[in-house]
Amino acid sequence: MSTQNNRERSKHLYEEALEHIVGGVNSPSRSFKAVGGGAPVFMKRAKGAHFWDEDDNRYIDYLAAYGPIITGHAHPHITKAITDAAENGVLYGTPTGLEIRLAKMLKEAIPSMDKVRFVNSGTEAVMTTIRVARAYTKRSKIIKFAGCYHGHSDLVLVAAGSGPSTLGIPDSAGVPASIAHEVITVPFNDLHGLREALDKWKDEVAAVMVEPIVGNFGMVMPKPGFLEGLCKMAHDNGSLVIYDEVITAFRFHYGSAQTYAGLQNHEAIQPDLTALGKIIGGGLPIGAYGGRKHIMEQVAPLGPAYQAGTMAGNPASIASGIACLEILQGEGVYEEMERLSIRLTEGLQASADRHGIPLTINRIRGSFSAHFCQHPVTDYDEAQDTDGEAFAAFFRHMLDQGINLAPSKYEAWFLTTAHTDEDIQETLAAAEESFRQMAS
Ligand code: PLP
Predict the structure, then answer these.
(1) Which protein residues are within 6 Å of ligand 1, measured from CB?
(2) Per residue in 278-311, pLDDT tens?
(3) N6-(pyridoxal phosphate)lysine is carried by which residues (predicted)?
(4) What are the residue ranges of helices labelled H in 116-155?
């Protein structure tokens, strides 16, 4: 088994980065704070399912850049689309035919979206769905679910108050209490909590927003009936339903959670607005939102809700997104990611069991989360009640053997179309060694 302990250049670069970039990272999730601190690994090259760091160590990647890289790194079809776009000029500030093509692909795959608008990130997409819902309903409050992450705009950096019917409190410095008071947070998978919140705030609630399959405190399926109940309660209350599908769209099949066969009753779980990002840009910055025509027509220049973007719909991101979706249209693509993911999760579970290490795996097709606990993980409280120290130890043992995971116990593992049986075998051998060391 190869070890990758020499990360001297990463350490050196981290020290330098700390001088110039706040915290040394451009997104807090990249820091190693949650896994005991120290220098994160500085990567310099990636191809397929593999990364090479600045010290030339090789890693198998399960981070997939937090989701977008579903076809593996530097896929030739996507690379060609991006270089072609670059040669034709990367930004016009005018409409393009390419945008229509990607919009049509999204609409065909996600029928609840009659109209689409491209933006630059998942954060922007979610932020704007909230504005549109408020404009349409002429109401101001939003209900969201604990542990779901919706980007970093003010309205969604809000934590629960003391119960489902209490107003939110800021979850970040700089978010005013007055904004947090516009948000109510209830537990995921808890229709009673939602009922209580809707009964309390009634016609003040513009929208109920949810990750229909959670990707941010592990991968968590909605319990049977949860999304049906959520949609019915919200609509009976005159509120809109917003699905944040920034992680889930094109993740489990060629479509989104709202069309995923694992969730049976599609008609009863259709949202009014959907936010997208990640995979639909094939690795370049993108976001999109869409929904029913009469609701989307609130958006400028047709309607009174303003939203704009200098970079929105730029030809490079759009071409990259089209190329990524074209790959995902290939036959058997999702089935193969699922096959590898089953092999990996079964092996991980068996290995953890062998060494007496409690492990609960939530797998949904080619993605899964591995929680160091014995209980099921169906909501945020259960995801929090897991052994962070065990995860940190596992993370470091795996990294030292060339397996790149997200440095947080809440993040998912993503298989890509580039992973192979050899990668799985190597990963399982590393896991066996990690669990052995943890148990000794
Ligand atoms: N919504 C969900 C479900 C996400 O997981 C994320 C990012 O992880 C976002 C929104 C924000 O997307 P971005 O980081 O592109 O702004």
Answers:
(1) 66, 121-123, 126, 149-151, 211, 215-216, 244, 246-247, 277
(2) 999 999 999 999 999 999 999 999 999 999 999 9
(3) 278
(4) 122-137
